[in-house]
Please model this.
Amino acid sequence: MDFLWTPWRYAYVTEADRKKRQGIPEELSAWPGDTGCVFCNIVAAANYAVEHGMDSQAADRAAGIVLRAGRNYICLNRFPYTSGHVMVVPYKHQSSLAALDRPTAHEMTDLAQRAEQVLARVYKPEGFNFGLNLGRAAGAGVAGHLHLHALPRWSGDTNFLTVIGETRILPEDLDVTWERLRPAFANAAAE
Model:
């Protein structure tokens, strides 16, 4: 008998842990707040941890942040469709692409380009999905805070378990993904 282990999904599936539902990893749970938005929470919790003595890289790792830029950041998707699934997220809480100021929108596009380059180097996919889901009806899991998905794809990366069982099999732990992507994004920024 085969077993599929996806322990990181437990809080999502059962809603057993309030802090995890807010997007706050255990390592950052000392943060006392809740902005009401998972994307605002992870940045605020990581910033709080740094202000209270945690190393900034350790805080970003706990939050899943692989790159911080001036107006946006790139983080891992905690519930990825494939290994390497990242999101470009503006710091400013906006629900609409049209509501973003031009510098933020332009930086978001620049970071999406950088994500394509990094994911191509690290994962060597056969294709990519990039997308925005604006509003619940469009499939946005977090409808109130705009975020751009970037994920590598391969031919044949779906199987009966995904199609019929609505279950994804991921071959890489999120910590491993962070370890691979953080330095790759840092190197891409230096180029």
Remarks:
- The beta strands are 65-68, 72-76, 86-90, 127-132, 148-153.
- The chain has one domain: 7-190.
- The CA atoms of residues 72 and 91 lie 5 Å apart.
- The domain at 7-190 is CATH 3.30.428.10 (HIT family, subunit A).
